[in-house]
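Run log, item B.
One chain of 305 residues. Sequence copied directly from the ordering sheet:
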Amino acid sequence: MSKKKLRVSMTTRRAINGYMFIMPWLIGFICFYVICIIMTVRFSLSELTVLPTGGYSTKFVGLDNFIYAFRVHPSFKQTFVTSMGNMIIDVPLIIFFSLFMAIMLNRKFKGRGLVRAIFFLPVILGADAIADAMQRSMALMNGGLTTMSSEMSTAVSGGMSIAYYMEIFSDLAIPSQVLEYLVGAINRISDIISASGVQIIIFIAALQSIPGSLYEVAHIEGATAYETFWKVTFPMVTPHIITNLVYTIVFRFLDSEVVNLAYTTTFTERNYGLGAVFSLVGTAAVCLLLVIVVGLIQKRTFYYN
């Protein structure tokens, strides 16, 4: 009897390769992170007490910690709403700025490597050791900086305020919501630049992976630079937009006030149940945001084979 060969389609092979690629992460996620989530849920439903002899004891209190967080705690709701609002504002700005800078830095010009390194410096300077060294150096310069800041504030006070420009643009019938968004972007420009280093590198890698033949065809067909961007460049980088969105949302959440509040409540105030509630609520909100954002963009994502 002849043995029948097992035929596997190309789609199935790619799916298997994908699962094998993420298998180490999936095993670590199940063995470590899922256990932590379960323990956090348990702590959020309990009153945890650290025993003098070591270990801890838990007393089931149901949803009391959640009720206290949303009805009694003086700052959690405001901190949570503010953090999520800032994230919704910052993430699109970071993605747009990163893509714009990646397109600029992908062009050939003298000193391109140096300019790329400058934009990646905020990521390096974000390291704990370097940040601590910079704080120590800045502490020695406080006297001079205080004098300089007072002089700068005096100079700025004599100029035109942002409200003046908002009044001008409002006369042009630009919606107030758009103006507020732009003003918020201007106020956050330093944070946006410092948070865009990794995203710029990812977009540069995406741009360099686009086949040059696509641009040649677009040029032969007479496409303008605007049409080439929307018909060639943008569709080809959409998978990397999803990657950057996930990275940016998670990174901004880890740097948010909700995480700081949960950390302070847990390890400073020793209120482990309430801290677990803050962590769970923040994590659930970020996961929901990721599902919505990725689900919306996934439908318009183009994958080049």
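Observations after the first pass:
- The chain is about 75% helix and 5% strand.
- The domain at 72-125+162-298 is CATH 1.10.3720.10 (MetI-like fold).
Flagged for discussion on Thursday.
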